[in-house]
Amino acid sequence: MEYIKQGFIEAFQLLLQFDPEVYDVIGLSLFVSTSATVIAAFVFVPLGVYLGIKDFKGKKMISRLIYTSMSIPSVIVGLVVALLLARRGPLGFLGLLYTPKAMIIAQTILVIPLILGLTYSMAKNRGVAIHKVAKSLGGTRWDSVILIIRELRIDILVNLATSFSRAISEVGAVMIVGGNIKGQTRVITTTISMMNSMGEYPMAIALGTILLIISFGIHSIIYSYSQEE
Amino acid sequence: MELGIHNLRKRYQNEVVLDIDDLTIEEGVITGITGPNGSGKTTLLNVIAGIEDCYEGKVLYGGKSYSDEIKLKTTLVFQKPYLFRRSVFDNIAYPLNLRKVPRDTVQEKVREIGNLLSINDLMNKKGHQLSGGESQKVALARAMVMEPELLLLDEPTASLDPESVVKIEKSLTEYQKWKGCTVVIITHNIEQSRRLCDKVICLERGKVALNGVL
Fold first, then answer.
1. By mean pLDDT, which of B99-103, B159-163, B198-202, B205-209 is the weakest?
2. Other CB atoms within 10 A of residue A189 CB
3. Which residue of B has its CA nearest to A142?
4. Percent of chain A surpassing pLDDT 70
5. What is the per-residue pLDDT for A6?
6. Interchain CB contact of A145 with B (< 8 Å)
7. How many angstroms separate the CA atoms of B80 and B155, rounded?
8. In whole numbers, what is the pLDDT of chain A averaged over residues?
């Protein structure tokens, strides 16, 4: 028990002393996961709403594919991205492997099914009524998509927070495509994993605590916003 | 805008829910659609409004097929109105903003329609926080403000108290006389049909059972 207690004390010392290594890791984690969530949301929130309100042949099959892809393991995504970006791979000429850009690509692919699936399901269930109103008032399908995003903004924000949490807490994909290089591609989860295997618990506990604080902070902000609304 | 319906068939999973050979709805009058539950009233209104677009036959609007131009001149008020999570003013202004109407004109038109329906005191309230009667009036105002040539109403006074029913009927009659638009209203209430409608169509199992004056 003593080493756990000591681990927590040293962890808070690291945080309060503004240890540059700790904050570099936190900064990169936030940058990679936020970029991935924003990039995916920009395209796949409108697409999810559009598919949700549109009737088309094969919609049931598309639904199944979207929902299945939501549970895709992060290591599989990491492996596929690594194979594509590897020097001998089809996109190897870009020289992106073991860079933050590769990590953003992997996490974007990881959160796309989640953002698409959750938005699609929400639009299918609650967006159709809004679409009918927009249509009856002379709106186009694009007007409906914008209106639905505005009307269901709280739920969409919760979806995005869930997707961001999935991105920032995953370890498999960023480990494979980033390589956990100190000062370059080391993020919270890969550092926790490494420090744990090295028996360096204070750093692991400090970063674990930060991960929980980030998650708590984001969901608290969204909760307060939804209460105001 | 006169409506012509020819050989209209609408099916849901092989069951025919609408089967109308020939029906004309006159321009510039209030026409009531009545009939038992499941007789196809709402489906007919949805077809006319362009919400349902998968059917056999023809629906002509002043002799023309449904188009973007017709869409901008037609509107439907649903039985359970959905108001947006924004102010009543913004709810009513929405169709005008879609049509890129200048801001000053929007203000003027919203106030004008607010006066007609006596809802100017609600303008700053949130749409989703209103009572049933207030919501229905706002939904009606949102439809009327775009000055449609064809106004479709799906039981707009169902589940409202008698006082609200009288107010909505009065506003509707005044508006129709003022603008001279074609109004089609679904109602279960024969007395309401007598008070409001110039003509009445009765549907039964998707077919026109009666078409005339009460």
1. B159-163
2. 24
3. B98
4. 100
5. 80
6. no
7. 9
8. 93
Q: What is the pLDDT of residue A227?
A: 81
- Chain A interface, best mutation among B70, B96, B98, by max A CB count within 10 A: B98
| Contact call for A138 and B82, based on CB within 8 A | no
pLDDT over 80 at A229, yes or no = no
Q: Which residue of B has its CA nearest to A129?
A: B82
Any CB–CB contact under 8 A between B6 and chain A?
Answer: no
Pairing of strands B15-25, B182-186: unpaired
Task: Please report, rounded to a whole number, the percentage of residues in chain B having pLDDT higher than 70.
Answer: 100
Q: Whole-angstrom Cα distance, residue A191 to residue B73?
A: 62
Query: CB-based contact (8 Å) between A138 and chain B?
Result: yes
Residue B120, both tokens: 């100017």
Q: Is the pLDDT of residue B214 over 90?
A: no
Q: Which residues of A touch B52 (CB under 8 A)?
A: none
Interval A126-152 mean pLDDT: 94
B177 pLDDT above the threshold of 80: yes
Looking at chain B, which residue has its C-alpha nearest residue A154? B85
Q: Is the pLDDT of residue B173 over 80?
A: yes
Residue type, A74: S
Domain B3-212, CATH 3.40.50.620 — does that match?
Answer: no
Q: Which residues contact B51 (CB under 8 A, 6 or more apart)?
A: A132, A135, A136, B76
CB atoms within 10 A of CB B210: 12
Q: Is A136 on the interface with B (CB under 8 A)?
A: yes
Q: Is B50 on the interface with A (CB under 8 A)?
A: yes
Please, are residues B181 and B28 in contact by the beta-carbon 8 Å criterion? yes
B82, B85, B146 ranked by CB distance to A129: nearest = B82
Residue of B12, B48, B52, B85 to mutate, testing the A interface (most A Cβ within 10 Å of its Cβ): B85
State the CATH architecture for A27-187.
Answer: Orthogonal Bundle (1.10)
**Which of B90, B207, B100 is closest to B138 using CA atoms?**
B90
Domain boundaries, chain B: 3-212
pTM: predicted TM-score of the whole model, two decimal places: 0.87
